[in-house]
Amino acid sequence: MDGVLIIDKPSGWTSHDVVNFIRRRFDVKKVGHAGTLDPMATGVLVMLIGKYTKASSRFMSADKEYYAEMKLGGTSDTGDAWGKVVASGVTVDIKEDKIREVFKGFLGSIEQVPPIYSAVKHKGKKLYELARKGISVKVEPRTIFIEKLDITKIELPEVAFKVCCSKGTYIRQLCVDIGSRLGCGAYLSKLERTRSGAFHIENAMSIEELKAGTAQDLEKRLITETDSN
After folding, report:
1. Which of 106, 152, 173, 202 is paired with 216 by a 20 to 30 Å CA distance?
2. How far apart are CA 3 and CA 28, in angstroms?
3. Which CATH homologous superfamily contains domain 3-61+197-228?
């Protein structure tokens, strides 16, 4: 059994939870994924089965698209609603023009410091492991590229937007940085990955389908190089 399987990851599951489920449910030894989604996030998780696990770096390098919602007027230690949220004490009364102007400032090639609660490694240790121990380290910025950043709704203190970006972009940190530039603080309240490379949410298999399916059903949903050509 070899190929790519597109899963619509539900909120509350880690990416590794999906890996483990497929391994146990279908007795598949080689299972991996191409691009972690936070437990809070939903959407496209590219699963690699069999010999396709060897091509993870190629699939991970693809650009991504997300639908996100952020809340102004507060901060979170993790950058999202699952962390410890503290109100900034700033009244969120910002003109839409100002919000749109700030968003435009994040288009193109920019520097982003990965969040401390992330799987980025520092001297062999994952940042979130250090953060949980109360260890503070200096995290170097990384160059990312944001191709599109379109606001879809502004209902203060909520702002919804769509983003197309390069690999390694943290949408949590994007929200934090936007909130900082607006001067009111912000954190991510909802995130759905709608596309990863050539794989779209419309073609994703739900966890419910996965639970109800057989190994034969799984194999039929696998995408191979031949299928993609």
Report:
1. 202
2. 12
3. Pseudouridine synthase (3.30.2350.10)
